[in-house]
Amino acid sequence: GRGRNANGVIVYNGREMKRSELDQNLKEVARTSKKTPIILRCAEDSPHKALVDVLDICYRHQLFSVSIFTM
Question: How many CB atoms lie within 10 A of CB 65?
């Protein structure tokens, strides 16, 4: 799963990582298939900018099949 916790920390496949690490991981995902579904799970109180940052990374790699859920 992809998402952030309430503190704005990125968690990708169960591992905390920096934005730059997420960027590299999603770059690899996009190389495999740009149609890969991306699921973002956000805490209700996570900062709006945190979500926008992750969406920007998805967009940069042309990963447009994105679903957003609140935890």
Answer: 12
pTM, two decimals, is 0.84
Q: What is the pLDDT of residues 7-51, one digit of tens each?
A: 678 889 999 999 999 999 999 999 999 999 999 998 888 888 889
Q: Which amino acid is at 7?
A: N
Cα separation, 61 vs 64, in Å, equals 9
Q: Report the Cα–Cα distance between both ends of the chain, in Å, rounded.
A: 12
Neighbouring-strand partners of residue 4 = 10, 42
Starting at the earlier edge strand, list the strands of the sheet with 38-42: 15-17, 10-12, 2-4, 38-42, 66-70
